[in-house]
From TrEMBL:
<dbReference type="GO" id="GO:0005829">
    <property type="term" value="C:cytosol"/>
</dbReference>
<dbReference type="InterPro" id="IPR019888">
    <property type="entry name" value="Tscrpt_reg_AsnC-like"/>
</dbReference>
<dbReference type="InterPro" id="IPR019887">
    <property type="entry name" value="Tscrpt_reg_AsnC/Lrp_C"/>
</dbReference>
<dbReference type="GO" id="GO:0043565">
    <property type="term" value="F:sequence-specific DNA binding"/>
</dbReference>
<dbReference type="InterPro" id="IPR011008">
    <property type="entry name" value="Dimeric_a/b-barrel"/>
</dbReference>
<keyword id="KW-0238">DNA-binding</keyword>
<dbReference type="Pfam" id="PF01037">
    <property type="entry name" value="AsnC_trans_reg"/>
</dbReference>
<dbReference type="Pfam" id="PF13412">
    <property type="entry name" value="HTH_24"/>
</dbReference>
<keyword id="KW-0804">Transcription</keyword>
<protein>
    <submittedName>
        <fullName>DNA-binding Lrp family transcriptional regulator</fullName>
    </submittedName>
</protein>
<dbReference type="InterPro" id="IPR036388">
    <property type="entry name" value="WH-like_DNA-bd_sf"/>
</dbReference>
<keyword id="KW-0805">Transcription regulation</keyword>
<dbReference type="InterPro" id="IPR036390">
    <property type="entry name" value="WH_DNA-bd_sf"/>
</dbReference>
<dbReference type="GO" id="GO:0043200">
    <property type="term" value="P:response to amino acid"/>
</dbReference>
<feature type="domain" description="HTH asnC-type">
    <location>
        <begin position="8"/>
        <end position="69"/>
    </location>
</feature>
<dbReference type="InterPro" id="IPR000485">
    <property type="entry name" value="AsnC-type_HTH_dom"/>
</dbReference>
């Protein structure tokens, strides 16, 4: 098995950029645009997948377009011993977009989406009903200044 490389070279970054900008393009088209063989593009993608750089190819979905235009960040304070159990229950909440164990005054930072403010309150109430969750603090998002992104970390 070949040794894993760390970091990306210019061709890796170019492949990533094109896959991100043109997600519906095939490998042959990407290879043509980059002036390399299709097998080269395939090998680069396969390596970046194996190295964990690329974690998926699914479509990015809009919570608002799916009927959940209101988003909020909720910090949960939890009993530390129940954290694993709480995490498993949180995973079943469809309105929970992501959750992270964090440092600071709270324990679990959650990004949630709702149809409206009332629905958001229902989602928070469901999370508060989980045994081991003590309290929550929530801030509602008004607009997105910088959407979730990772591409800038890949380099210039």
């Amino acid at each position: 098995m070949p040794a894993r490389r760390h970091g990306l070279d210019d061709l890796d970054r170019a492949v990533l950029r094109l896959v991100a900008e043109r997600p519906r393009s095939g490998l042959l088209e990407i290879a043509r645009l980059l002036g390399v063989a299709r097998g080269t593009v395939q090998a680069r993608l396969d390596r970046m997948i194996a190295d964990g750089v690329i974690t998926g190819f699914g479509p990015e979905l809009s919570p608002a377009a799916l009927g959940h235009p209101v988003q909020a960040f909720t910090t949960l304070e939890v009993e530390q011993a129940a954290r694993e159990h709480i995490s498993a229950i949180l995973e079943a909440v469809p309105e929970l977009l992501e959750a992270h164990i964090v440092t600071g005054p709270g324990d679990v930072l959650c990004r949630i989406a709702g149809r409206d403010h009332e629905h958001l309150q229902q989602v928070i109430d469901r999370m508060l009903a989980i045994p081991g969750v003590r309290r929550s603090t929530t801030v509602i998002t008004l607009s997105t200044v910088v959407p979730h992104r990772v591409m800038p970390l890949a380099g210039p």
